[in-house]
Amino acid sequence: MPGEPLPPNKYSGLEEDAYNTCLYLERLLDWSEEISDEVRTSKRTPQLCGRLLGYMMLEAPTPEGRLNVAKEIQTCASASDTQDRLAGITQFYDHHFIRFFKAAKDATPAVSTPPSRPSIDMTAEEKNQLLEEAPQDHRAAKLLCLVRDNYRCVVTGRYDAATAISRYLEDKTFIAPAPIVPTELAHIIAESTNANIQGGGTKRSYAASAWAVLDRFGKVNVVDNELNGQGIHRLPNVLTMSVDVHIYFDTLQIWFEEIGTDRYRLCAHWDSVLTALGVDLNNPVIQLTTTNASLPLPDSRLLRLHATCAKVAHLSGAGEYIDATLRDMEELKVLASDGGSAHVLLDALLHSGGQVTVH
Questions:
Q1: 170/165 Cα distance (integer angstroms)
Q2: Between the CA atoms of 82, 83, 88 and 94, what dihedral angle is there, to the nearest 10 degrees?
């Protein structure tokens, strides 16, 4: 799971020093004999750690975010237990940034089902009520998102099947304006992030740490942007997507690269993914639009963070490492008698909410 080699250092000052630290890690063949058992058991190689931290700097969505990562790296580098600290900060970003987008998504998101009356036919009073209040649950967010996105997948342009069926049942002359597909409500920041965090505990601690990373790295404040609690369903954090698009988005196989105001280039690690979705490889451009000025479009900062995560996960090799660990967790019934699966248990415990101190 090597990822791509880091390019030459292009920075100056503290950032140059921090990136050189990443290059140093990348060149190491193995950890020193003094490294802690926890780091060695995790099976994260120095190369993986160096590349993850290096690409966090290279792909940072904001200059402030890059500088904050550089400061963390150099604080670790100046400690007596340098390698342990660097492995620790890598593990922190792995669990609280990469996995925040990649592994925290709901495994079985709810597919849109035919409502008793199509949302396109909601009364003016019902629409106004939804518009005046932020969506408080998945269903309300799905309805508003469908209205905003004109009942279409934002990537393929295909029409929501549930709405088409409901319209046809009421009017047998109705013809959908585009091929129909089941659609889902896709969250940029995972819907599960704010679930079951009341009253403290490891889940709340994990969420708090992950939100802190988004604030320091991407200037997204959970309180200021009203994404706390049920605010996770607010329209700036959701999109309408067909099932296949949603899967690729959640697994970081596709991302939106900003090229203008609410205008994005759809990117993927492999062209075959875009081809499978029917995207024109010569013009993979998506212009997000809203049917109502009161229905805000997805926040470009959140899409930028998702794009950063997708690129860092792929380029560093961390995505493959996480995929392998998750596969092991699914298949693991009992620990290997020789301790060979200890890294899987360790990762599971850490991702369930265990904290890593960042110095």
A1: 9
A2: 130
Residues 314-333: what's their mean pLDDT? 67
DSSP state of 2: -
Nearest to 243 by CA among 151, 164, 135, 156: 156
The DSSP output letter for 107 is: S
206-232 tens-digit pLDDT? 888 888 899 999 988 876 667 877 788
Domain boundaries, given as residue ranges, for the chain: 1-104+190-226+317-358, 124-189+239-248+260-298
Write the burial class of residue 27 (CB in 10 Å: 0-12 exposed, 13-18 middle, 19+ buried): exposed
Given a cut of 80, whether residue 295 has pLDDT beyond it is yes
Q: Higher confidence at residue 205 or residue 254?
A: 254
CB 298 within 8 A of CB 239: yes
Handedness of CA 209, 214, 219, 224 (dihedral sign): negative
pLDDT over threshold 60, residue 131:
no
- Under a CB-based contact definition with an 8 Å cutoff, are residues 311 and 148 in contact? no
Distance (Å, whole) CA 330 – CA 322: 12
